[in-house]
Each structure stands twice: as structure tokens, then as C-alpha cells.
Amino acid sequence: MECIIIPHMAQRIQVPIKRLAGQEDLPLPAYQSELAAGMDLYAAVPADKPLTMDPGQIILVPTGIAIAVPPGFEAQVRPRSGLALRHGITLANTPGTIDADYRGEIRLILINLGPDPYEITRGMRIGQILVKPVPVTQWFEVSQLPSTDRGDGGFGHTGS
After folding, report:
1. Which of 2, 29, 137, 140 is most buried (CB neighbours < 10 A)?
2. Separation CA 126–CA 150 (nearest Å)
3. Is 45 exposed, middle or buried (0-12, 13-18, 19+ CB in 10 A)?
4. 8 Å CB contact between 129 and 41
């Protein structure tokens, strides 16, 4: 089978972003490769006061930015795979959602699932952000749902 490479033609949207006071030295979220889905977020902790996460600890880490997500979209915050693999650092609520009407600072809820303490320093890449379309859902009640082969088979119904 022949592999066809399609040029990157993703939809582009503009999202207003504001650096909060005292955070001008931190980079704005940016893609790290041409076809990356997420942009890195940076820790806006004081340079002289890094945060140490003990194993099992959950902390709220500021990013120093606020955004205005356009109506019909959400921003999702997600873990960085390298932090999770090498150190057990991930988001406790992944993916986290930033709604279109939120205007406060983006902060990440990090958890240390690793066996060792981990230090979060200023400017460290701590997560990723993606802006995604969100359709408006309208429920309509029915007396019976359409059938499928799976039916009501739950967790593990296809094997381990």
C-alpha cells in the first residue's frame, strides 16, 4: 500500500492571550514540531521558590497566562508524555477543560505518581494545551435506544 503525505491544512483560529503581570519572561504556548497537536505550557512559579512535589501529592501550578477561547471551542490541557513516563508527573484531571467564558489564569492540577519527589521550576514545560471545537448538545428523550452489537456490554466486555 502506498503512503500518501497530505500537507498540514488544519483549520486556524485566533485566540486572544494575555501574559499576567510579572510573567513577561515566560514564552507563550508554542508548537514544538510542525505537526504537533498541542502547544507547551510553562510553569510560572517564582524563580527563587520552586515547588517540590512529594510522591502522591497534588498541586496547582500557575502558567502566567489567560486566554479568551472563542465561542464554539474549548481549550484542553493535557499532560506531557515525557514527564509522565520519566517522572510520573501528570494531570489529575486530564484532559482539563477551559471553557469559552473563563478569563482567569490557566493553572494545571499536577499529581506526582512517581516514587520520588519532583521539583517544578520557573519556565519548565508542565503540560500541553489544545483548542478544539465543541458542538452544542441537545438531548431528546426516547423510550428505547437504537440497538448495536455491543448492547450494554460494559468494562472489559471484549477481553483483557
Report:
1. 29
2. 38
3. buried
4. yes
Q: Where in the chain are the domains?
A: 17-133
Q: Identify the architecture of domain 17-133 in CATH.
A: Distorted Sandwich (2.70)
Determine contact, residues 93/39, Cβ cutoff 8 Å: no
Residue pLDDT, tens place only, 27-68 = 999 999 988 999 999 999 999 999 999 999 999 999 999 999
Rounded CA separation 89/56 (Å):
10
- State the pTM of this model: 0.85
Cell digits for 20? 499576567
CA dihedral 49, 54, 58, 62 (to 10 degrees): 20
Contact 110, 51 (CB under 8 A): no
